[in-house]
């Protein structure tokens, strides 16, 4: 139980910090430029919190815990990357297939970010357990 809680805490914190830097500083203008009027003036934080809570749990179960069993941060990174590509790819490819004028650049950048973000997040959860347990 302690291992799972540490894994979740490390995963969740890494997810928030990395995505906060990405969305708040690095790619802020990119998303506005790509999505324009589709974006809200400010994000719905309650809905965003639900995503982060559930996604962190998925990362722990599907990437961090298998990596801890294998004793390999590379496993955390690889499983996280696969999960990130699947999750963000589902969203972005579906939008490309169903929404008028959805920007291809938006999907490509977002999928690349989701892959890297989830890999880093899984590695953060793995390291939290290895360092603190």
> Which percent band covers the strand fraction?
under 5%
Flag low-confidence runs: none
Whole-number tally of structural domains: 1
- Major sheet characteristics: none
Discrete helix count: 5
**How helix-rich are the residues, as a percent range?**
over 70%
What structural class do the secondary elements suggest?
Answer: mainly alpha
Please give the number of β-strands. Answer: 0
- Average pLDDT over all residues: 96
Succession of helices and strands: HHHHH
> N- to C-terminal separation?
11 Å
Pfam families: DUF2177
Transmembrane segments: 44-65, 72-91, 111-129
InterPro entries: DUF2177_membr
Protein name: DUF2177 family protein
Short description:
This protein is mainly alpha-helical. The protein has helices at 2-26, 28-35, 45-70, 73-98, 104-132. Keywords: Membrane, Transmembrane, Transmembrane helix.
């Amino acid at each position: 139980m302690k291992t799972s809680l540490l894994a979740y805490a490390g995963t969740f914190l890494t997810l928030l910090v990395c995505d906060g830097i990405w969305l708040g500083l690095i790619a802020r203008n990119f998303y506005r430029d790509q999505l324009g009027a589709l974006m809200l003036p400010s994000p719905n934080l309650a809905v965003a919190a639900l995503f982060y809570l559930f996604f962190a749990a998925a990362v722990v179960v599907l990437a961090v815990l298998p990596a801890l069993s294998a004793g390999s941060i590379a496993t955390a990174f690889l499983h996280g990357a696969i999960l990130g590509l699947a999750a963000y790819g589902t969203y972005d490819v579906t939008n490309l297939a169903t929404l008028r004028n959805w920007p291809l650049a938006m999907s490509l950048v977002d999928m690349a970010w989701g892959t890297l973000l989830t890999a880093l997040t899984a590695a953060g959860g793995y390291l939290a357990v290895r360092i603190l347990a």
